[in-house]
Amino acid sequence: MAISRIAIGDVQEVTRFKGIKLGISEFIATFIFIFAGKGSCMAFGKLTGNGPETPEGLIIACLGYGFGLVTAVSVGANISGGHVNPAVTLGVFLGGNITLFSGILYCISQVLGATAATYVLVFCTGEKASASALGDGVSPLSGVVFEMIMTFGLVYAVYATAVDPKKGNMATIAPISIALIVAANILAGGPFSGGSMNPAASFGAAMASGNWTNHWIYWAGPLLGGGLAGVIYEVLFIEQNRTILPSTDDY
């Protein structure tokens, strides 16, 4: 079972230079993702005066975050795996594919990268950041379920195209597949839960905007969905005879 392969690791993983490089990779990849995605939304608002809650704004968010994620995953894939999302990292950890210490390093780096990108955008554009928010009439419970289901699909796609040892040539299209499910989920969930699927992205937006209303939803939903996807895929579809990946010794 995947649970038996969960590893804690040791502090040397995050203090040695080889380990620190993984954190730097996640920081840069997440920065690229958020800067492109949120920057697209802010640019649309600047040019039109409309927000992402409009049909056009929803399409811009879909394209901006989708295109940004293709690049972010691609540039990080051969170094840290290109998680750019604490929910992805949790799913990979619960599947026994990364140690706890490395996972914590990844999550911290992702949160810092997302927060830095948001603050840089606010500074450079003079625009205000907007936090992840529920649509009108959407309850917190519904928001959690939306975020959980969307993130389940995201992490399931990550496992199928990037983590599974049997992926073969599928790995070459992993960034595209992952970005497409995120873009589709933004279209599906944007008007309802905000379509975050990424606690780091929501944290950066909440920090820069000062709006923490219902912020817990954007941790609870994605982490539940991502963790569940990782465990299900690992237990049902991956042979349990391989070592933990990635390892800091590989870089």
UniProtKB/TrEMBL annotation:
One cellular component (GO) term of this entry: plant-type vacuole membrane
Regions crossing the membrane: 20-37, 57-79, 91-121, 141-159, 171-192, 216-238
InterPro entries given in the database record: Aquaporin-like, Aquaporin_transptr, MIP, MIP_CS
Organism of derivation: Zostera marina (Eelgrass)
Localization of this protein: Membrane
Keywords: Membrane, Repeat, Transmembrane, Transmembrane helix, Transport
GO molecular function, one term: water channel activity
Stated name of the protein: Aquaporin TIP1-1
Family designation: Belongs to the MIP/aquaporin (TC 1.A.8) family. TIP (TC 1.A.8.10) subfamily.
Keyword Transmembrane on entry: yes
Gene3D superfamilies named in the record: Glycerol uptake facilitator protein (1.20.1080.10)
Cited SUPFAM superfamilies: Aquaporin-like (SSF81338)
Membrane topology per record: Multi-pass membrane protein
PANTHER family in UniProt: AQUAPORIN TIP1-1, AQUAPORIN-8
GO BP terms: water transport
